[in-house]
């Protein structure tokens, strides 16, 4: 069963801040001041945000959760809800942003399923979840097997099917006529491709976020092979490999050290998000990224795919991303300037606007089995508040 990340509710968030405000107000009453200064109010909001992050990281059960029928956890707020958060509550990278406009009536589906990449978990989507909900959509972030707070042993994951089981289970439990938009980050693109092959009728669109958008017969690892060496050399010489079943058995996973992770994944991300990742990332199961995918035109080929490129990515370089879309052309390409490998941290507003734009793209006439897609690839440069803020700083 998949587990999903849930942000602190607005009511809980407001309650935590009010509770602290009362205590601080009481302490100040002796001085005869009945109103907080702007600096004190800013401090209160930052403390409330810190409390929320602590709750997100608490796998022991103190985090408030809502379980849906699919076994995932999601935070849901009605489209008519208004935000009670002030600017000080928000991460620095989104405080100056304006809400993206979206016409909900035109959407084929409001549900967006967020699939994390290697080592990550549902927790990494916390900014994206909040932004999508504020636009009236219904994001759900899943933990793949052995990721996030899923308690499976990483060393026991032997196939891509094992790794992707929470996603496939979730899709299979959807009502008969309900579809979702899938978003896969990094090696999570392999799980999205696998889902396209297994459950194409459950998926409205697939979005590959600087992800392993492989071809039929290709391994996810092959995408990185130019930068990490061939699979054979990597398995023989890499110092990143983990041997969970003993040194005399094949390697079961890999793990970057903290400095490598920071340089490869988070070269443009805020330090607080890098710190969150440092205490939350788990070892990467090796078998799923070494497995060749079998993808057919009759299943995988019937769903529209979109690719989001990040132009300051050190893990999956822009050149490799260009090669991916050249060799396996999607239906649309979007680019984020200044985005590192984790734009949900470094460029959350840019990412959100692109996701909303893709969600509103009207699907073309259903593709017949074996029909070749002939649509031209559209390259759209995302000009967002993230970039305006960056230029003015």
TrEMBL record:
Region spans: Disordered: 1-36, 68-93
Tree of life domain: Eukaryota
Keywords: Hydrolase
GO terms (BP aspect): jasmonic acid metabolic process; salicylic acid metabolic process
SUPFAM superfamilies xref list: alpha/beta-Hydrolases (SSF53474)
Gene3D superfamilies in alphabetical order: alpha/beta hydrolase
Start and end residues of each AB hydrolase-1 domain: 112-350
Record-level Gene Ontology MF annotations: methyl indole-3-acetate esterase activity; methyl jasmonate esterase activity; methyl salicylate esterase activity
Entry keyword Protein biosynthesis: no
Protein name: AB hydrolase-1 domain-containing protein
Gene source species: Oryza meyeriana var. granulata
């Amino acid at each position: 069963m998949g587990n999903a990340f849930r942000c602190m509710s607005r009511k809980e968030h407001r309650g935590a801040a009010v509770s602290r405000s009362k205590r601080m107000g009481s302490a100040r009453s002796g001085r005869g001041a009945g109103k907080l200064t702007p600096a004190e109010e800013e401090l209160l909001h930052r403390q409330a945000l810190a409390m929320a992050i602590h709750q997100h990281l608490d796998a022991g059960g103190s985090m408030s959760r809502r379980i849906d029928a699919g076994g995932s956890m999601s935070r849901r707020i009605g489209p008519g809800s208004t935000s009670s958060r002030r600017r000080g509550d928000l991460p620095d990278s989104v405080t100056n942003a304006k809400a993206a406009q979206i016409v909900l009536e035109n959407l084929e589906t409001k549900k967006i399923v967020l699939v994390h990449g290697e080592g990550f978990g549902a927790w990494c989507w916390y900014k994206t979840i909040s932004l999508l909900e504020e636009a009236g959509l219904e994001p759900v972030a899943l933990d793949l097997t052995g990721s996030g707070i899923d308690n499976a042993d990483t060393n026991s994951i032997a196939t891509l099917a094992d790794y992707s089981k929470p996603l496939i289970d979730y899709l299979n439990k959807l009502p008969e006529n309900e579809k979702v938009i899938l978003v896969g980050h990094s090696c999570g693109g392999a799980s999205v491709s696998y889902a396209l092959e297994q459950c194409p009728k459950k998926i409205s669109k697939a979005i590959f976020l600087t992800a392993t958008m492989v071809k039929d017969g290709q391994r996810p690892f092959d995408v990185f092979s130019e930068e990490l060496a061939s699979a054979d050399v990597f398995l023989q010489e890499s110092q990143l490999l983990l041997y969970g079943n003993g040194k005399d058995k094949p390697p079961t996973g890999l793990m970057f050290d903290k400095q490598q992770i920071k340089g490869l994944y988070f070269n443009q991300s805020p330090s607080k998000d890098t710190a969150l990742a440092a205490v939350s990332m788990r070892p990467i199961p090796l078998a799923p990224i070494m497995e060749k995918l079998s993808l057919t035109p009759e299943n995988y080929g019937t769903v529209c795919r979109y690719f989001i490129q990040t132009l300051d990515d050190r893990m999956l370089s822009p050149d490799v991303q260009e090669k991916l879309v050249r060799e396996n052309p999607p239906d649309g390409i979007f680019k984020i300037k200044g985005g590192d490998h984790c734009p949900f941290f470094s460029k959350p507003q840019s990412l959100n606007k692109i996701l909303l734009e893709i969600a509103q793209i009207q699907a073309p006439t259903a593709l017949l089995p074996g029909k070749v897609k002939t649509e031209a690839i559209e390259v759209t440069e995302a000009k967002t508040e993230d970039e305006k803020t960056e230029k003015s700083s």
